Amino acid sequence: MSTRVIVTGGAGFIGTLLARRLLAKPVTIGDARPAPVDELVLVDLAAPPPDVAGDPRVRAVTGDLADAVDELKDADAIFHLAGVVSGAAEADFDLGMRVNVDGTRAVLERARRQRTPPVLVFSSSLAVFGADPALPAGAGGPATPVGDDTLPRPQSSYGIQKFVGEQLVADYTRKGFVRGRSVRLMTVAVRPGKPNAAASSFMSGIIREPLAGLRATCPVPPGTPVALSSPRRTLQGILRAAAVGDATWGSTTAMNLPALATTPRSMAEAMDRVVGYAASDLIDWTDDPVIGAIVRSWPARVETPRASALSLRPEASFDDIVREYLDDESGQPGAA
After folding, report:
1. CA end-to-end span of the chain, whole Å?
2. Catalytic positions, please?
3. pLDDT, tens digit, for every residue of 93-148?
4. Among positive and negative, which fits the CA dihedral 259, 207, 129, 255?
5. pLDDT tens profile 37-76
6. What is the chain's percent helix, strand, coil content, to nearest 5?
7. What is the spatial distance between Cα 109 and Cα 221, in angstroms, rounded to a whole number?
8. Does residue 11 contact residue 44 with C-beta atoms inside 8 Å?
9. What single DSSP character describes residue 128?
10. Is 283 helix (H, G, I), strand (E, B) or coil?
11. For residue 334, what pLDDT is reported?
12. Which residue, among 71, 99, 89, 109, has the nearest Cα to 9 in the 3D structure?
């Protein structure tokens, strides 16, 4: 029996990590026996990297998400990672709605037409939480812990669009159209490559650029509380969500992935400790009111009882995340 998997956003950073993992080892889907992936369909505006695209099991579908889904065949699992990031969704409302809401609905409708409901993992975001300005000062702010069942109060278009996606996945699951699992991703750091339009992009930039000898800008004060996750821990959470059975997954409410609570100052200090010199001297601490308002609306303390029950844990320290990034950049193998 063949195993077919679809990854939207398959040419992005997390999508590429996921694709490589799916091609390298057998995958568990919905508590079934681990099985190798026979066909991997990657949907994105861009083509996947050559090492992924060159695998004979890979089929790349490029184009707008809402149009591209019509080309997809039935799949055992769908990882819906595609989306317009936070800063871009805030700057271009129509683009965010088209991709993050209409695109998600298109993916769900395509899954609904399958003969057998697929396992569908939807990447939501910590941005669904926020501090409602109509509530007393401090309520729902970074210092307020959030759990899986905390009422989301998103304060950005991106957060609202992701919350809409969570609810769509929950209803399609309730109706039996898909076997949905929504996971709320933390900011992922450290990402390699160039900065993107996410409001959280600086959390990678203040590490990546100084380590390359380049200046970086931190648009929030050094002591701003933030929650983040390493690429490997994020990938583990996504794969674990797909692997468990429906009863083990439980509630259709989205699950928070584990987070490491820190600050940009602590991140910079960890970088300096790991590399043994003051790389953080290349960071310019310049407050940006637009980005700062978005970042400060996100919680920095995240409670993850459901993830813990699935044996998911955050990194122990940001020092470990810096080491992981340096190992990956040097080509040393890391833990899967």
Report:
1. 25
2. 158
3. 999 999 999 999 999 999 999 999 999 999 999 999 987 888 776 555 667 789 99
4. negative
5. 999 999 999 999 999 999 999 999 998 887 788 778 899 9
6. 40, 15, 40
7. 43
8. yes
9. G
10. strand
11. 40
12. 99
The residues pairing with 62 across neighbouring beta strands, listed in sequence order, are: 44
Specify whether the CB–CB gap between 112 and 178 falls below 8 A.
yes
CB atoms within 10 A of CB 152: 20
Helix and strand numbers, DSSP H then E, in the chain: 14, 12
Given this model, what pLDDT does residue 335 score?
Answer: 39
Structure tokens belonging to residue 41? 């369909």
pLDDT of residue 30 exceeding 70: yes
DSSP 11: T
Task: Please name the residue that has the structure tokens 């959390």.
Answer: 203
Q: Is the entire prediction scored with pTM above 0.85?
A: yes
The 3-state secondary structure of 152-214, one letter per residue: CCCCCHHHHHHHHHHHHHHHHHHCCCCEEEEEEECEECCCCCCCCCCCCCHHHHHHHHHHCCC
List the beta bridge partners of residue 163: none
Examine residue 275 and say whether the peptide bond preceding it is cis (omega within 30 degrees of 0). Answer: no
Tokens of 250: 């439980």
Residue identified by tokens 């609905």 is: 105
